[in-house]
Every structure is written in structure tokens, then in C-alpha cells.
Amino acid sequence: MTAMRDEIARLAEASTHDLRIEWRRTHRTEPPASLSRDLLLRALAYALQERAQGGLNQTTKRMLAALSQKTGPGGGSAPGPEAALKPGVRLVREWRGEAHAVLVLEGGYEYQARRYRSLTQIAKLITGAHWSGPRFFGIAQLPGKARQVRPAPSPTAEDARHGQT
């Protein structure tokens, strides 16, 4: 364990050039050109720890591979804040003195007795401008916490300049 810490400390003091050499030795490939010194150092430290303590088990590797197929290039993206809303939830946003209510449905939303695929479509209909629907209705992902519904943001000076008050 001490030897690994000493090696990581040595890497932390190394130049970017030396880290790239270490990458070639460790991974037997060229390091990605866009990789910063900090990321090179972190990746090399992880490789040292992996060798000393073992890497991910096969089950975890399979699970990550399956997830990357779903969310990787061409595979879509991670679910957004809208995915956490349960059918039956009512979202209300006041806009220009008028309250706008949206009902969350299974696989969509209802606004003014019409069905829509996304909150962004509804936000654009209400404002006449492109808005992020989740942002317009105050839905946010808080780091390290469950998704929550927050009060919708108040119009800002920036909104006023663009006629969005």
C-alpha cells in the first residue's frame, strides 16, 4: 500500500511529458491528445490502484457495458429530470400574470386539453420562445440528491430584454 502511495506521489510530481510516457508504458497505446495533465494523472493513479487492489468484477463490467450501449453514441441519453415525474403530478407556472397548468401523463403531458410529448413544446407554446421545458417549470436535478420539483424561476432582466417577462 505504501509503495502504491509513493508511486502516485511520484506521478503527481512528474511533468506532462513524463505522464504521457508512463501512459504509453501502462496502457501500451498513445494517450488521447486532448487529455489534460490532471486527467492523465488520475487515470494513471487509478491504473496503479487497480493493479494493486484489483479492478471491477465481471458483473459490474457487464452492467457498465450494457449501460454504455444504451447511453453511448447513437444510443440515446440519460433520462432527464422529466423522467422522475409520476403520472398525475400537476405542474403550474405563472407567466405574464396567467397560471399555466400541465398534467403529467404516462409518456407525455396534457396542457389545455391537448397532449404533448415534452415540456419544452409546452414552454415554447406558452412563451413564444425556445425554453428548456424542465427549467421553465422549475424541475431540477440536484447533485447527489433525488430529483425534485423546485419553484419555477422568476423572470430575469435577461428574460425582459428578450421579451420573455
TrEMBL record:
Q: Where is this region: Disordered?
A: 144-165
Write down the Pfam families for this protein, in alphabetical order: DUF2924
Listed InterPro entries:
DUF2924
Q: Under which name does UniProt file this protein? A: DUF2924 domain-containing protein
Q: Which organism is it from?
A: Limobrevibacterium gyesilva
